[in-house]
Description:
By secondary structure, the protein is of the alpha+beta class. It has helices at about 1-10, 20-70, and strands spanning about 80-85, 115-125, 130-140.
Amino acid sequence: MKRLADDASSQRDRGGTFIESVIAVALATIVVLPLLAAVRVSVISSTTAFDAAKVETALIDVADQVTGLPFSCDGYSLPGVVSTQYLLGGPLTGDAAWSGPAPTAKCDPADPTTHVQLVTLTITDPEFAITRTMEVVKTDG
């Protein structure tokens, strides 16, 4: 009788086979790898969103600086200012929509009809190449 109990006990204590171990590792890998990939994508997305927010904040800061400066027919030498165009012969209508002729690069300090500017701002994050552009409409007055 004692021998049957020892055989059953030794059968249980033998452990897993090599095949069982390989299957366990394969199943663990199948579960863990997608989780690691999801964590990686989440970290990259979070970093990109954070950097985009920094670029947008810098863009808004430059836009505030442009609107706070006095009107200038010479344009604005601020980081991020790409171009300044002027509207000839008409007021602005609606939400920064031009009314009348197309914008031009000319401004006459003595002619107030040329004192409406469309200032294009562009900021780029050099590390991630995130670019944001904004147009600011500025008038003399």
